[in-house]
Amino acid sequence: MEEKLNAAKRPLLALPYLLTLMLLVLGLFVTDTHAQAKEKKEKTEKKKKDDTKTTKKKDKNDEAKGNKVAKAEKKKDKDDDKTTKKKKVEKADKMEAKADKKRQKAEEVAVTKPEKAERKREKAEKKEEKAEKIEAKEKKQDRVTQVNRSTQKQIAGDDKNTGKDDKGRTIYEGPRGGRYYINANGNKTYVSPDKN
Predict the structure, then answer these.
(1) What does the alpha-carbon distance between residue 140 and residue 112 come to, in Å, rounded to a whole number?
(2) Of 2, 52, 121, 146, which is the most buried if we count CB atoms within 10 A?
(3) What is the pTM of this model?
(4) Domain range spanning residue 183?
C-alpha cells in the first residue's frame, strides 16, 4: 500500500516542478513578446525619422527645382517681352502701311470724284433716253392696237363707251353686258370682267 501511496504522491511531487517550469517558459514568452513589441516600436520610430529625413531632402530638392523653374519662367518672361515688343513694332508698321494706303485712296478719290459725277450724269441721261424710247414705242403700239375713231364708232354703233383700260384702249359695253375693245384689225376683242 505504501507503494500505492507513493505512486499517488509522485505526480503531486512533480507538480511544483512542472509549475515552475511552466512559469519559466511563460516568463520567457512574456519577455520575448515584450522585446518584440519594443523592437516594433523602435522600427516604426526609425521609419518615421527616415521619412522625415527623406521629406526634408525632397523639400530641398523641390526648392531647388522651384528655383530653377522660377529662373526658367523669368527667362521665358523676358523672351516673351522681347517677342511682344517685336510684335508691337510689327503691328505699328502694319498700321502705318494701312494708313498710307488709306491716304493714297483718299487722294485718288479726290481726283476721281469729278469723273464719277460725269459718269452719273451720263447714266442718268441714258436712262432718260431709254424711258423716252419706251414711251414712244408704247404710243406706237397704242396706235396700232386701235383703229381710228371714225371706224370705232361705226363698229361700236349704239354700244355704250365705259372708259379706258390701263393700256389706253377705249372699252365698250355690248347690249348683253359684255365688255370689249376694237383692235387694230377692226374686230371686237372681249375683255374678262376682272381686267377692267
Answers:
(1) 42
(2) 146
(3) 0.28
(4) 147-196
Task: Give the type of residue at 53.
Answer: K
Q: Are the C-beta atoms of 137 and 168 separated by less than 8 Å?
A: no
What's the grid cell of residue 44?
516604426
Q: Once rounded to an integer, what is the mean pLDDT over residues 104-127?
A: 80
Which residue shows C-alpha cell 419706251? 134
**50 inside domain:** no
In this structure, what are the phi and psi dihedrals at residue 6, rounded to the nearest 5 degrees? Answer: -65, -40
Tell me the pLDDT band of 3, cut-offs 50, 70 and 90. low
Residue 42 lies in a domain: no
User: Taking a C-beta distance cutoff of 8 angstroms, is the pair 144, 182 a contact?
Assistant: no
Tell me the CA distances in angstroms from 146 to 58, 90, 157, one per residue in order.
112, 77, 16
End-to-end CA distance of the chain: give it in Å, rounded.
163
Please report whether residue 52 resides in a domain.
no
Residues 98 and 140 in one domain: yes
